[in-house]
Amino acid sequence: MKPFSILYFTLSVALYLVALPLLVYLSFKHKYRESIPARFFLFKNPRFKSSDGIWFHVCSLGEARALGPILDLLKDQDIKITTITHTGQALARRYDAEVRYLPYEMFVPFWAKKQRVLVVLEAEFWFMLFSVLRARGTRVILLNARISEKSAKKYLQFAWFYKKLLSNVEMIYAQSEADKNRFLALGARNIEVVGNIKLSAEIKKTQEYKKPECELIVAGSTHEGEEESVLKSFIEYRKQSDAKLAIVPRHPERFEAVYELMKRYANDYSLSISRFSQSREFDSDLILVDAMGELNNIYAISDIAILGGAFRDDVGGHNPLEPAYFGCKIITGKHFFHQKELFKYVHHVQYVESDEIHRALMASKELPPSMVEEKIDLKPVIDRIIKN
């Protein structure tokens, strides 16, 4: 390894030793019970079997889902996938691929096998992964690459480091011109703007559910604090309009806490409440959707989608393409910095603060459904990936 790589590796070992007690503690948390032992202790996380494939690395659920159209065009290839989160891992296992968790950086030199190409999605910038694989002859490509406006200043403060990291990259396919310029400022080269690959994803439902006779509002991919704002607004909205509300928390470990919150509102305002996992129907006034993989099925029968993750300033929003595809009238927050590129292609969206959701619900009556315009061409990307 080069001197800087040795220094970086040494620091990663020191950080690991300091964090070891916390890692052991977190390993017993339901959310991390699989991912932390796999990533930080290599538990049930062996090396890939072969060393001549196409390795995709993604972080979580959204990026894993975005791989679908690309993998459809690479059906005859030896595919490997690594993820960071357990939700990304669960979705990646549906593909015809070897799937692993990406180990912590100090393990990478001993764990990673050379592949023909490593394709890394979005903002997963791991120095040891890039430098080790490049040194072993693996081509490194960044796909759907982005640097958010909010994060750009932090990256620039360490521009010297990211210049070293990005020097290992053969090609960067950026989401937008703004992303391209931010990579250029970090000293990157060979950058091409292709748009967001999530625009090429096939959006479909997997189940048919009966739409209620009244208006159905779905609060999708919500985070802590957002559900209460939605519930307050819904109570006000119900004074002028007959409607039902389904809430779909982003993280399954929050199902119980959200249900307790919903029960409180149901008791205070004499509303009926149910858990979707028990009834699979939308007969109640309030429905907690406590099941994974159902959001598209619910968007398909919803009139209005309140898209979570953007009413707080620390999440960055969630994918608007799915509710727009099903013709929902979309309401979301103003902090959608991680999804800014996707929102460019979605029309008729209301962007509001959390205390303005009721006003947006009322305004929805006069607005057309949201819609998506634009597609991207994956052919240049596939050609680059499979080239010898």
From TrEMBL:
The keyword Acyltransferase does not apply. One of its GO terms (molecular function) is Kdo transferase activity. It is found in: Cell membrane. Its main location: membrane. Residues 36-200 form the 3-deoxy-D-manno-octulosonic-acid transferase N-terminal domain. Pfam families: Glycos_transf_N (PF04413). It catalyses: lipid IVA (E. coli) + CMP-3-deoxy-beta-D-manno-octulosonate = alpha-Kdo-(2->6)-lipid IVA (E. coli) + CMP + H(+). Its EC number is 2.4.99.12. GO terms for biological process: lipid A biosynthetic process; lipopolysaccharide core region biosynthetic process. GO terms for cellular component: plasma membrane. Pathway: Bacterial outer membrane biogenesis; LPS core biosynthesis. The chain crosses the membrane at residues 6-26. The record marks E122, K198 as: Transition state stabilizer. It is an enzyme of class 2 (transferase). It comes from the Bacteria. The active site is at E63. Involved in lipopolysaccharide (LPS) biosynthesis. Catalyzes the transfer of 3-deoxy-D-manno-octulosonate (Kdo) residue(s) from CMP-Kdo to lipid IV(A), the tetraacyldisaccharide-1,4'-bisphosphate precursor of lipid A. Belongs to the glycosyltransferase group 1 family. This is 3-deoxy-D-manno-octulosonic acid transferase.
